[in-house]
Amino acid sequence: MLLCSTGLDSRQWSDLLPMLEGRKVICPHYLCYSGTDSWKGDGEINPWLDFLAAESLLMSEDKSIDIIGHSYGGFIALKLAKKYPEKIRKIA
């Protein structure tokens, strides 16, 4: 999973994607960012983590995943690892 920094979206990773050819790559757009719905939550981070976990199919697969997070994406990656330690293999 590739998690972008604040103010950007998954297009941030377009130059990296050719190097990851042959791998399953998930680059979610954050809610409230360009082309997405507005966030209906109260600002609490856990619903957002649950959204990303569902978006990445973390909860439906037996495999663990690797996450690359840039800036805010790194913060979210660490929060995901804390909440779902058995599902996150590596973070960069």
Features:
2 helices; alpha/beta; globular; 92 residues
Question: What does this entry look like structurally?
Answer:
The protein has one domain. 15% of the residues are buried. Strands 1-2-3 form a three-stranded parallel sheet, with helices on one face. It is α/β, with parallel strands linked by helices and 92 residues long. The mean pLDDT is 80. It has two helices and three strands, in the order E-H-E-H-E.
Précis, in short:
This protein has 92 residues and is of the alpha/beta class. The protein contains two helices and three strands; from the N terminus they run βαβαβ.
Main beta sheet:
3 strands, parallel
- Give the N-to-C terminal Cα separation: 10 Å
User: Quaternary state, please?
Assistant: single chain
The overall strand count is 3
Radius of gyration from the alpha-carbon trace, in angstroms: 13 Å
Helix percentage range: 25-40%
Task: Provide the fold topology.
Layout: E1 2-3, H1 45-55, E2 65-69, H2 72-83, E3 88-91
Parallel strand pairs: 1-2, 2-3
